[in-house]
Amino acid sequence: MSDMEGSGDTLSVIAAQLRARMEVTNGAREETLRVCREVIQLASRAIRAVHRGEMESARVLAQEAGARVAAVRQGLREHADLYWAGYVHDAQKEYVEAEAMLAIVTGRPLPSPEVLGVEAAAYLNGIAEAASESRRHVLDCLRTGDMARAEATLKTMDDIYYELITFDFPDAITGGLRRTTDALRAVLERTRGDLTLTLSQKRLEDALQRAHLPPPLPG
């Protein structure tokens, strides 16, 4: 057998081995994509349940999302390249947002990234998006006259923002946190303006009632 023929046989063996490895990797990728889509769907439903006041349903949905996040982490122990792919980050971020929303609305401390089993960049972006999403909860509180809860929620949003702006690292490390934080700042400004206007209106109405005068006409 010539050296050329031997090289061809060796290459065939190498190619077969590499093909087998890539088939395993591709299978892991397809499964990860499927589970990550489920995480995002469950997290979205959990957030919607929070806004509807369906807290128990939100907790169950968030727990289901968390179980899938853990499954992805476990399933990719031999596929680090897939674990650090963007779709895993996005799924973790959405899960963090759901858990953080639950904590903010119910007045509980935010769960840590270790408790949630997520990476730092996904955690930071997730709590940033939860803070922005909390604007809706503040507006709901204003509509129902629950000023204390509206103010408490805005304070939590503020606290999150002022911690996030201390993370002055490249986007490649933070997953684009700077853009998310900038968006949160704009949401905070609008929400603070809404709360201030509502509180001023409430004080005026209270003063008029004490003076036995009719409330001002809208507009």
Principal-axes geometry comes out as elongated
The structural domain count equals: 2
- What's the Cα radius of gyration? 25 Å
Structural class of the helices, strands and pairings?
Answer: mainly alpha
The average pLDDT is 91
How many helical elements? 9
Helix content: over 70%
Number-wise, the strands total 0
| Strand/helix succession | HHHHHHHHH
The CATH architecture category of the largest domain equals Up-down Bundle
Main β-sheet, in a few words?
none
Beta fraction: under 5%
Classified by CATH, the class of the largest domain is: Mainly Alpha
- CATH-defined topology of the largest domain: Methane Monooxygenase Hydroxylase, Chain G, domain 1
Uncertain runs are none
Write up what this structure looks like.
This protein has 9 helices and no strands. The chain folds into 2 domains: 1-118, Methane Monooxygenase Hydroxylase, Chain G, domain 1, CATH 1.20.58.2140; 128-219, Methane Monooxygenase Hydroxylase, Chain G, domain 1 (Up-down Bundle). It is mainly α and 219 residues long. The radius of gyration is 25 Å and the shape is elongated. The longest helix has 49 residues, at 3-51. The N and C termini lie far apart (95 Å). Helix 1 (3-51) packs antiparallel against helix 2 (55-75), helix 2 runs antiparallel to helix 4 (86-106) and helix 6 runs antiparallel to helix 7. Helices cover 82% and strands 0% of the residues. The model has no long low-confidence stretch (mean pLDDT 91).
